Amino acid sequence: xxxxxxxxxxxxxxxxxxxxxxxxxxxxxxxxxxxxxxxxxxxxxxxxxxxxxxxxxxxxxxxxxxxxxxxxxxxxxxxxxxxxxxxxxxxxxxxxxxxxxxxxxxxxxxxxxxxxxxxxxxxxxxxxxxxxxxxxxxxxxxxxxxxxxxxxxxxxxxxxxxxxxxxxxxxxxxxxxxxxxxxxxxxxxxxxxxxxxxxxxxxxxxxxxxxxxxxxxxxxxxxxxxxxxxxxxxxxxxxxxxxxxxxxxxxxxxxxxxxxxxxxxxxxxxxxxxxxxxxxxxxx
Length: 284
Known about the structure:
The protein is an alpha/beta fold. Helix content is 42%, strand content 23%. The protein has 9 helices and 11 strands. Strand 3, helix 5 and strand 4 form a beta-alpha-beta unit. The longest helix is centred in the first third of the chain and has 24 residues. The protein is elongated, with a radius of gyration of 23 Å.
């Protein structure tokens, strides 16, 4: 006879695994600690397997629990997708999404168009700022989900894609041939230090032609062939082009696009938006 898994118990299991403990998971699920513990026990008993290692100071997954976690996330995501699609008229309100301005295109317009189609009564507030500021917004509750660009994710971050930085300049431009190499970056851009350190390591002289607060200032300078810039591969603005330098400029390091603020199964609307972000950036 077929046996069915308890989705409520699975949701508690995933929450405990992601939160790192029963106390935090109970708060996220708005349940008592005893209720969460009981669901975990019931899940282990139904499977006849130990899923959590309680021998240490904290709670860790057993190898079997680690294997179940992957299945559980997929089951909950499918459950929430079905529920959301079948009852989308019940979802309304707003969700705040923070994205660094330099990775808004080309992915975010596609994401917003699809999300609005699926959840027409949910308003999306798009907040564009620098990675460090977006992390502050998330911590303060001003954003529900954020994307960042960084070398490695911090705790709670999920890497969506790892891509190299590429040199960009004016279409048909020659600024990249000049020495010192003229650069244009925002003051708070995390890529700036990476680029400068790479040039220093290669012994290439450079000068900061413009250091502005906004990409609206940077892009016209680069488009006028007054300086060069660097962006994540696949996010080049349409009015600029990747520089074919033939090795005269150094190869730049990779950066990760990281998602923060998402816990599987916590909120069907947030889950849906996170899923669309994963799909969109995986295609870059």
